[in-house]
Design a protein that fits this description.
Elements: H1 2-31, H2 33-38, H3 46-70, H4 75-108, H5 113-147, H6 152-180
Helix pairs in contact: 1-6, 3-4, 3-5, 3-6, 4-5, 5-6
Length: 182
C-alpha cells in the first residue's frame, strides 16, 4: 500500500495543477459563448476536434518517450519530425473532415451549401492546426520535463491533453467567429 500512496503523491501535484489549467479551457469556452449561442450546432463537432488533437499529441508523446528511453540525442530533430508528421496527418484528417461534415450538414441536415462548406472548412482547418500543435507539444513537453528532472511519463499526457484542448478550442471558435458569425 505504501507504494501506491507514494506513486499517487507523485502524480497528484500534476493533476491538481492541471485541474486549474483545465479551468482556462472552460474560460476559453466562456469567451466564445456568443459564437456558440449564435451557432449551437458547432458544439456537436467539438469532441471530434478535441479527440483528434489529443490523439495526435498522444502518438507524438509515445514516440518521444520511446526515443528518450533509447537515449536518442537528436531531440530537436525529433520534435520537428513529430510536428511535420502531425501536420501531414492533420491535413489528411482536415480534408476528410471537411468532406464528411459538408455531406452531413448539407444533404443530410439540409443546411445551405455555403454555410455547410464554411462550417466544414472551420473544422478542417482547426483540425490541421490543432493536430500540428499537439504533435509539437506531444514531443516537446516530455523532453522539457525530462531536462527539468521531472518524470515525463507521469506529467506529459495530462499536460499535452490540456494544451491540445486549449489550442483546438481557440482555433475552432476563432475561425468560426471570423467566418460564420455576422
Amino acid at each position: 500500500m505504501g507504494g501506491t500512496v507514494r506513486k499517487a503523491a507523485k502524480r497528484l501535484p500534476w493533476l491538481i495543477s492541471l485541474l486549474f489549467l483545465g479551468l482556462s479551457v472552460s474560460g476559453v469556452s466562456r469567451f466564445f459563448e456568443g459564437v456558440v449561442g449564435e451557432l449551437p450546432m458547432l458544439v456537436a463537432f467539438q469532441p471530434l476536434l478535441l479527440g483528434m488533437a489529443g490523439n495526435a499529441g498522444t502518438q507524438s508523446l509515445a514516440v518521444t518517450l520511446r526515443g528518450l528511453v533509447r537515449g536518442e540525442k537528436t531531440l530537436p530533430r525529433m520534435i520537428l519530425s513529430e510536428m511535420r508528421i502531425a501536420f501531414l496527418a492533420g491535413l489528411v484528417i482536415g480534408a476528410l473532415s471537411f468532406f464528411a461534415i459538408w455531406v452531413y450538414l448539407c444533404p443530410i441536415l439540409n443546411y445551405s451549401s455555403s454555410f455547410s462548406a464554411c462550417a466544414a472548412f472551420c473544422i478542417g482547418v482547426s483540425s490541421t492546426i490543432s493536430m500540428t500543435v499537439s504533435g509539437l507539444t506531444g514531443s516537446a513537453i516530455p523532453i522539457i520535463l525530462c531536462r527539468l528532472g521531472a518524470d515525463p511519463a507521469v506529467a506529459s499526457g495530462p499536460l499535452i491533453t490540456t494544451v491540445s484542448d486549449l489550442c483546438a478550442l481557440v482555433c475552432y471558435y476563432s475561425i468560426a467567429w471570423a467566418m460564420l458569425v455576422e
